[in-house]
């Protein structure tokens, strides 16, 4: 037990990096880590507030339909879906390809203890997600109605993540197994990951928030359907309405049994699964061929592009918006206006798009930054960039070009489609290209600046710098601010959009200058 | 030629500066194989990184064939090859892609294929160049790092523990190459903990302790009648 607690403690300390706040030798690093924790707390509070407001707005509709506990069912469903989706891609790293594998396996500790400690660590993280959703939901709920079993409600929060986590681990192993059969594992990984995300999106369309009676009704129907495939949710709803010992035992017993069986089976087949998932195809018959000379920029760009496309997590977490917009266009072509309008709950798709397409495309470009983790992702191989005879600006440009390689075609395709689809006049047609392009450049340059401000070369998993870092947070918040603030100040007219676009290009020039001066200096000190 | 003039590097920690290397002066002339020895944390890697233009420094200057790395780093880096103590390369690239990347950056146009073939054959890596680097063992990565350093025919080679991870044959081949390229006019400045290798291979040696140079010069003058190990131990316990 002591060994289990010790490994779990080390896992958690390494995951949250709390140790760095107190133990770091350097004051600046200590301060930076402190700010990171502050930002995490801010995100925690903000998300909790968002959930509270969502429940607060929807609650009267559920009361009107006489099914108030179903709103807690909606939160339960969200928690389960988030846990299910967010862990699927991590399974391979969590259970089979963790950084300290060699060290832990060489210690006199049973393998099932190591597996259990890894699962408990990820469970605790998922418990945090569940708390962010379920605790504010509770407070919004009791504002309207009494909940007899408050203690039970809080106790059950600890049980909720177990089954979705179990399912996520199973699906993750199956997907990794399937991916390992592809000759080109990266392509395989894309096919599998994108398919899963599309399925989840289709499901989530059916469990939307309920700010009107009609939507509340639709959510209740969805919850009933969800209960048919996931009976624990029905048991949960019954339990929080009135305590029943059989339901209670079922609710805690089923997850415990499932997880125990999982750990038991994984322990038996661990080596086989690990070998299969980490299998690599190695050849020893390569022959030197003629190669054409490239410029330094072109060579750096190719290297950067290869790094990007070879990492499906990097792609899916940075330019997924580009994939989404293309899917959206295909959906409009296939399903026509009415279906999409219904899906988006807008009366007329054309009117809606005419008003929001510029903002939508701009937001998408502003949020799609491949540059914000690009310096950190150099990791321990940063010495190569620092020792080669290439100007720092060329290195920055190669990273910016990778972002634009994906954003410019997206702007051209979507701009041309919406231009013709919405019968835009010539100025608007030009603007539908120029405005998102301005934001694309802004995202690319500011992403690099954010990363230079807070680089992290000492990560144990790339997802840390791609998704869970200060530059990632700043990029998303910054994107919202630069797109949403201007349109909230004044009514959207074409002239106003032109002014915003001009301002964005001016900001682009200023940021490029800052990157040239400050960025170069900062890069030399890394 | 590599000249290190009054080189000082310090790291700040809690408002206090910790001096990693203190006013170091060294001159590595063309044709030299110069060993740089010292205990762990003595400042060897810091010095080598600064010479390669990777690390900023507080005081002094480093000249590569008369050009300062501070004022004209690009010209200097074109003449340098650096191999770190741990070969962290671009894991997502194939071995051959990494070598071509280096050749593109250093403008290796003539005899590119011949040079790649020559060195990868010598280190028995040619057949594996079509695999991505993440499939390589530590030794294979070290070999690739060495090949990438040699293909652009540098004038100054900065090597941090170059023999770690190499099999005996590759280790022998590397020593031969070091002799050949210094004979052709290049110079090599390398750190090592294997004192026997340094003693046999190098014509000059520098010993560093706590960031300060304790002795430097031609091998026979430093050693007199002793072994490098004895000399090293004497200085360390002074």
* Number of distinct helices of chain A: 23
Helix content of chain A: over 70%
- Alpha-beta content class of chain A: mainly alpha
Cα(first) to Cα(last) distance of chain B is 32 Å
Judged by helices, strands and strand pairing, the structural class of chain B is: alpha/beta
Query: Using CB atoms under 8 Å apart, which protein chain pair has the greatest interface?
Result: A-B, 40 and 50 residues
H/E topology pattern of chain B: EEEHEEHEHHHEHEHEEHH
Shape of chain B: globular
Account of the protein in words:
The complex is a heterodimer of chains A (526) and B (238). Chain A has helices at residues 2-16, 18-23, 27-64, 69-88, 91-96, 101-106, 111-144, 150-157, 162-181, 185-205, 213-229, 231-241, 245-277, 296-309, 312-318, 320-343, 349-367, 382-387, 392-421, 426-453, 462-466, 470-489, 494-525. Chain A has 526 residues and is an all-alpha fold. Residues 206-210 of chain A have low confidence and may be disordered. With 238 residues, chain B is an alpha/beta fold. In chain B, strand 1 (2-13) and strand 2 (16-28) form a beta hairpin. In chain B, helix 3 (95-105) packs parallel to helix 5. The chains are: A mainly alpha (526), B alpha/beta (238). The A-B interface holds A 25-27, 280, 282-291, 293-296, 298-300, 302-303, 306-307, 310-311, 379-381, 383-384, 386-391, 524-525 and B 12-15, 49, 52-54, 56, 73-78, 80, 82, 84, 86, 88-93, 95-97, 100-107, 109, 112-113, 116-117, 120, 126-131, 134-135.
């Amino acid at each position: 037990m002591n060994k289990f607690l010790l490994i779990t403690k080390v896992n958690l300390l390494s995951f949250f990096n709390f140790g760095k706040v107190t133990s770091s030798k350097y004051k600046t690093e200590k301060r930076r880590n402190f700010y990171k924790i502050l930002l995490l707390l801010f995100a925690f509070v903000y998300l909790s507030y968002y959930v509270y407001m969502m429940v607060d707005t929807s609650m009267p509709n559920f009361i009107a339909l006489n099914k108030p506990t179903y709103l807690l069912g909606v939160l339960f469903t969200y928690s389960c879906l988030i846990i299910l989706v967010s862990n699927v891609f991590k399974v391979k790293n969590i259970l089979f390809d963790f950084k300290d594998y060699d060290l832990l396996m060489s210690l006199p500790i049973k393998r099932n203890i190591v597996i259990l400690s890894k699962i408990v660590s990820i469970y605790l993280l998922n418990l945090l997600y569940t708390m962010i959703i379920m605790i504010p939901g509770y407070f919004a709920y009791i504002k309207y109605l009494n909940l007899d079993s408050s203690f039970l409600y809080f106790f059950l929060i600890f049980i909720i993540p177990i089954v979705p986590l179990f399912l996520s681990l199973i699906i993750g192993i199956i997907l990794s197994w399937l991916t390992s059969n592809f000759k080109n594992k990266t392509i395989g990984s894309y096919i599998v990951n994108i398919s899963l995300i599309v399925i989840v999106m289709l499901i989530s369309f059916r469990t939307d928030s309920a700010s009107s009676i009609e939507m509340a009704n639709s959510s209740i129907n969805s919850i009933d359907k969800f209960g048919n495939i996931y009976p624990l949710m029905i048991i949960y709803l019954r339990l929080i309405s009135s305590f029943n010992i059989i339901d209670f035992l079922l609710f805690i017993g089923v997850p415990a049994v499932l997880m125990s069986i999982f750990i038991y089976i994984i322990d038996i087949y661990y080596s086989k699964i690990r070998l299969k998932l980490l299998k690599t195809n190695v050849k020893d018959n390569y022959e030197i061929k003629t190669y054409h000379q490239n410029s330094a920029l072109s060579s750096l760009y190719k290297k950067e592009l290869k790094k990007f496309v070879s990492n499906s997590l990097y792609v899916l977490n940075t330019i997924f918006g580009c994939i989404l917009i293309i899917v959206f266009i295909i959906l409009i072509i296939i399903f026509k206006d009415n279906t999409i309008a219904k899906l988006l709950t807008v009366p007329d798709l054309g009117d809606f798009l005419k008003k929001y397409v510029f903002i939508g495309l701009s937001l998408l470009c502003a949020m799609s930054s491949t540059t914000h983790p690009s310096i950190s992702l150099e990791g321990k191989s940063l010495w190569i960039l620092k020792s080669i005879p290439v100007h720092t600006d060329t290195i920055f440009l190669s990273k910016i070009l990778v972002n634009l390689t994906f954003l410019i075609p997206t702007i051209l395709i979507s701009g041309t489609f919406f231009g013709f689809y919405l019968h835009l006049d010539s100025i608007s047609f030009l603007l539908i290209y120029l405005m998102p392009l301005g934001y694309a450049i802004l995202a690319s340059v500011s992403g690099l600046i954010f990363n230079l401000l807070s680089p992290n070369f000492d990560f144990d998993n790339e997802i840390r710098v791609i998704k869970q870092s200060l530059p990632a947070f700043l990029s998303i918040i910054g994107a919202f601010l630069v797109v949403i603030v201007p349109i909230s100040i004044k009514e959207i007219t074409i002239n106003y959009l032109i002014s915003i676009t001009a301002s964005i290009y001016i900001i682009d020039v200023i940021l490029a200058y800052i990157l040239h001066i400050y960025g170069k200096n900062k890069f030399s000190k890394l | 030629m590599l000249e290190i003039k009054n080189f000082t590097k310090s790291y700040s920690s809690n408002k206090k500066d910790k001096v990693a290397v203190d006013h170091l002066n060294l001159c590595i002339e063309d044709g030299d194989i110069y060993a740089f020895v010292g205990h762990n944390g003595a400042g060897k890697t810091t010095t080598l990184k600064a010479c390669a233009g990777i690390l900023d420094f507080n005081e002094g200057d480093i000249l590569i064939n008369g050009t300062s790395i501070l004022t004209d780093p690009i010209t200097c880096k074109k003449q340098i090859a650096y191999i770190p103590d741990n070969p962290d390369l671009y894991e997502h690239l194939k071995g051959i892609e990494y070598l071509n990347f280096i050749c593109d950056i250093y403008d290796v146009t003539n005899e590119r294929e011949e040079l790649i073939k020559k060195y990868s054959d010598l280190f028995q890596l040619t057949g594996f160049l079509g695999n991505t680097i993440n499939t390589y063992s530590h030794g294979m990565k070290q070999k690739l790092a060495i090949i990438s350093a040699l293909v652009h025919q540098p004038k100054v080679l900065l090597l941090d523990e170059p023999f770690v991870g190499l099999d005996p044959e590759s280790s022998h081949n590397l020593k031969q190459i070091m002799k050949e390229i210094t004979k052709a006019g290049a110079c090599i400045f390398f750190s090592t903990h294997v004192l026997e290798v340094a003693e046999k291979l190098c014509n000059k040696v520098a010993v560093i302790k706590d960031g300060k140079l304790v002795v430097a010069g031609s091998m026979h003058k430093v050693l007199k009648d002793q072994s490098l190990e004895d000399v090293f131990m004497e200085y360390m316990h002074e």
